[in-house]
Amino acid sequence: MLSAEELHARGVAAINGGRVRAARRPLEQALSRASDDATLGAIEASLAFVEAETGNRDAAMRLCETALARSGLSDETRGSLLSQHGVLVLFSGRTAEATKELDAAIERLSDYPTLL
Questions:
Q1: Whole-angstrom distance, CA of residue 39 vs CA of residue 30
Q2: Distance of CA 23 to the CA centre of its chain
Q3: With 0-12 CB in 10 A as exposed, 13-18 as middle and 19+ as buried, what is 93?
Q4: C-alpha angle 44-80-64 in degrees, rounded to nearest 5
Q5: I need a labelling partner for 68 at 20 to 30 A (CA). Which of 15, 48, 79, 102 fits?
Q6: CA 64, CA 50: separation in Å to the nearest integer?
Q7: Is 0.70 surpassed by the pTM of this model?
Q8: Buried b (16+ CB within 10 A) or exposed e, 14-49
Q9: What does the pLDDT read at residue 114?
Q10: 111 — pLDDT class (breaks 50, 70, 90)
C-alpha cells in the first residue's frame, strides 16, 4: 500500500505532466491516508488546484480554506495555498481581499523563487 506522501507525489506528477483529471484519484487516496496537518495541507493544496482547473472553484476555495486553517504548514505550502486562494478570490471579484492574500503569499514564498 502506498503512503500518503507517495500518492501525493503521483498526483503532483500527473498535474505537472498535464494530466490534471488523472491526478484526482491519487490525491483523494492520499488525503484519506494522511495523518498530520502538514501532509494534509499539502495534499489539499494540490487537490484544490485540480478542482480549480476542472471548473469547480467552490470546491477549490473550500479546500484552500480548510488547509489554511491547519497548523504546522510549511511557509512553502502556506504561501502556495494563499496564492491559490487569492487568485480564486480575485476571480470572484473581491480585489482588495485577493491583494492581501497575494501579498502574504509573496512574503512567504520569497525564499522559493521557482514558486514565486
A1: 9
A2: 13
A3: exposed
A4: 40
A5: 15
A6: 12
A7: yes
A8: bbeeeebebbbebbebbbebbeeeebbbbbbbbbbb
A9: 80
A10: confident
**Collapsing DSSP states into helix, strand and coil, what is residue 43?**
helix
In the structure grid, which three cell numbers stand for residue 21, read together? 483529471
pLDDT in tens, 6-54: 999 999 999 999 999 999 999 999 999 999 999 999 999 999 999 999 9
CA gyration radius, the chain: 14
CA distance 64 to 86: 10
Rounded to an integer, what distance in angstroms lies between the CA atom of residue 24 and that of residue 11?
7
| Grid cell locating 6 | 507517495
Cβ atoms within 10 Å of 55's Cβ, excluding its own: 8
Mean pLDDT of 51-72: 94
Residues 27 and 20: their CA atoms lie apart, in Å, by 11
